Amino acid sequence: MIRSAARGAALFTKEGCALRSWKFWLGVLISAVFVWLTARGLHWDEFVAALRGARYGWLLPAAGIYFVAVLARTWRWHYMLRHMKPIRVRRLFPIVVIGYMGNNVFPARAGEVIRSYVLRKKEGVPISASLATVALERLFDGLVMCAFVFLTLPFVPLPRLYQNIVILASALFFVALIIFLLLVANPARAESIAARVVSFFTPLRFRDRAVRLAAKFLVGLHALRSPRDLLMITVASAAVWLTETSTYWIVAQAFPALDVSFVALMLMTAVVNLATMIPSAPGYVGTFDKPGIEALKAFGQPANLAAAFTIVLHVTLWLPITLLGFLFMARESLHWRELESATQDREAGEQGSRGIREQRAPVKDCRELTAAKPKP
């Protein structure tokens, strides 16, 4: 595991691609601003005192509950994928964990591409199709987060800026949901429109490949065609975030002076996870912490105590799943350069380019995937 971490760190040396990416440096800059905003209002003696007074034994059950939330995410992904290929939850769980580890150590949420790449390598599901299911996950996550905010608004008045952000985010998520539902309502028409749009914007030499990728992406959205699957995905999304809020509540028990209800932590969960949509350094440095502190201050919690709790919570959410991701990565015989190539070019996993060796049979085309959909 130590060697894996060292190899991961090597990706950020002058020989790695991460440091040459403008996305990486943009994220670092934004995180630096958020960290500065977080640090400038703290009284460090009170902050350190809050950390010293914490009962860290609560972090072990908190991490356990967080993995229950990850398991619920895996179960939801199983439902999103099963129209393409039914895959057992126990086979998907390591892939999901590797993806979260990727989000924590690579910039620009590259773990989502890594997760799709590993799924392609292990199960033969096209990367573009699985990325569509990842987009569905983010959509339902956003809808649940907005619902959390609206449910908690009667209990605490959010600052006007945060209210406007939530209203805008809600509108965008609902528009995206309507667009996705329209796309799957008539697959043939959607594929025809997508082909025309892609052909218009894509150079001739890339056109055929781009059209195929768009078609596979649309296949990935077909989970929305089943009312039963749609209901299960919605229920699973709510379960995911209620379970994750339970992690927040358990960590809060480590700070005796912190006086927040489960409802308040629902609001914090929503605010910090909507904020992590902002580009940042790997691991959501700053973009998780500053909004979390502000949410707790809205409930009357002291800034230094809120900062201590939020930072300990952040580490609890970040460290265990990252270490387990390293372990699963070693077990699957994945290499850092392989994952780096997947993040640089998502076609690498689909076409076997850049020297990545595929161990599975060629991917089925979209018609085969659609025909293979299990009967309800």
Structure report:
It is built from 17 helices and no strands. With 376 residues, the chain is mainly alpha-helical. It has one domain. The longest helix has 29 residues, at 303-331. The protein starts with a helix and ends in a 5-residue tail after the last helix.
Poorly predicted ranges: 1-16, 346-376
Using DSSP, what is the number of strands? Answer: 0
The helix-strand sequence is: HHHHHHHHHHHHHHHHH
Class computed from helices, strands and strand pairing: mainly alpha
Kindly give the count of domains: 1
General form: globular
Give the strand content: under 5%
Question: How many DSSP H or I helices?
Answer: 17
Biggest β-sheet description: none
Query: Separation of termini?
Result: 42 Å
Radius of gyration from CA coordinates: 21 Å
Overall helicity: over 70%
Residue-averaged pLDDT, rounded? 84
Précis, in short:
The protein has 376 residues and is an all-alpha fold. Helices cover 73% and strands 0% of the residues.
How are the secondary structure elements laid out?
Elements lengths: L1 H9 L11 H19 L3 H9 L6 H23 L7 H17 L5 H13 L3 H26 L7 H26 L1 H15 L2 H17 L6 H26 L9 H14 L13 H10 L4 H29 L4 H9 L2 H5 L14 H6 L5
Helix pairs in contact: 3-14, 4-5, 4-7, 4-11, 4-14, 5-6, 5-14, 6-7, 6-15, 7-8, 7-10, 7-11, 7-12, 8-9, 9-10, 11-12, 12-13, 13-14
